Amino acid sequence: MKSFFIILFALGLASSAAAIPADSTVLKHLYDRVINFSEEKLDSITFYANFIEHESETIGFSKGKILAQRLKGLHADLTGNYEDAIGYFLYTLSTSREGHYVEYEISALSDLAIVYTEIKQPEKAKEVYLECLQLTEKNGEKSAIISGYSNIGAIYNILNNTDSALYYLTAARRLSQENNHTETLPFIYNNLGNVYFKRKEYQKALEYFWLNKNLHDVTQSQADLWVDHLNIGDCYLEMGKYDSATKYCQSALDISTMLGSKSKEADAYALMAKLHERLGNYKKAFDYQRQWYKIDTALVNESSGRTIAEMQERFHARDREKQNQLLVAQVSQEKLRNRYLSYQTLAAAIIGALIGGLLLVYRRANRKLKEVNQVIGKQKEKLAALNQEKNSLISIVSHDLSSPFASIAMWSHLIEEEKNFSPEQKNALRKIRESAQNGERLIRNILDIEKKGTSLEELDLEETNLVAFVSHVVNEHMEIAQAKSIELHMPRTAEIFLMTDHSLMRRILENLLSNAIKFSPPGKNVWVDIEEVDNMVEIAVTDEGPGITETEKKLLFTKYTQLSSRPTAGESSTGLGLSIVKRLVNELNGKISFDSEIGKGTRFCVQFEK
Q: Which of 15, 182, 575, 602 has the most CB atoms at less than 10 Å from its CB?
């Protein structure tokens, strides 16, 4: 689905600047008109940006440089040149702050957040949007507050926080209607549709997208209609109405090609690949996926990511330099103030040396405490920045690695459609597909364990015959165990029922079983037992592996921990499995424990309340 973000302070109409003499008012009105241009008027954006810059220098209009640079950033953004776009927007942000132009500072922050969203850095976008919203609420301008609420709602939806998204979007809609700001409603409707789409309430999402399409059929804005057709096509696709989905998906692709927008083409190709995969046209799906990947990777690649990070660092370096200069001035002022306080202290010492001495000790201790707090605050900021860099790296890795694995799986489907394969060839195809699936599973594990919270997934609880469920999972691992001559022992308990989430419970069992088989020598046994103890249900997996040392027991559930014991048949081990199990057990409100003895094996036990 395509989200809409509102660019702040982009209202107003004016006649062409070339028709009347240029002054600051004319240039401002011209800028207000041009900032609304879409991809259909790219050449005009560049022309008017240069015109405003030149005329501003001629008449000494200091804000003109900011307006021109922002228009150039808009042109770079619309053409997919995100490095230049961020450069222009950082310039407008820095210059606006220097001149104390709060309204332009808000606009620059909004522009930067939109670009961060487009280059797949939603956490960074949320950080900038929240800073922008804080300034906007302090400034008190209603239309800007409405835009801010709509934008932060859209970014929360991208981050899968639909409750927060609905909170801000509902507030934006209420303010828009109360203050008669109808021009912002299409953006709000679009983002509300995206939230309900993410919640899989497709009919409700479709209603909002049709509201927008009816409005844009009148204005005939091709850029707006592209978003409408893309969203409507995606809804029909998820609802299983493939004829309607094909019509609107193809229309979205045609419009993006006509507009010449690479980012819009990439989104349209991705949706076409999804459509043809659902239809079983794997060859077409692969072709569209390849075209999407070619454009999307070109728009956001490692090189551009580094360049963008360097620009951000240069901007922050300038800010730090200014802050350092301010701190130097404050230090000088503090020295003078301390000297004055010292004179006062000496005077007070004449009256009472003891009282003066105590006050001096207190003052020094208080100053030291402030210095320590400042150091702690700066360290927290550095840690937050490092964590953001880590999250961005994980996002890029998942983007660059998941597509090749998906392509391998899709090609295996295409090849398998051929009928004249020998059993050995079919077995080879099956192994190729399993390898691709294992690669994708590894990526999901890395992303899974790096999640910030443990409640990002909605639980789907249902009454489960736990003995039958666990036995089924154990059966799935029989072939792997037999390959190592390991005997798997099934649960011997009668029926036990538990209210649980099948998906999370399966992942817990698969990780524990996989580890038990992986670290057990050939010819050994692995037992899986289930029993009821008081009001608890216990599931235990016991192996005859090498056991765990006392030192390593303390690190067992931490991320990326590599133990001294190695898999006995050369299997791969990422050190993620048990940390994932710990998180999933916590998410089901359970407990996990283990007993291990060197040379005799290990027993893992998970407990859940009935």
A: 602
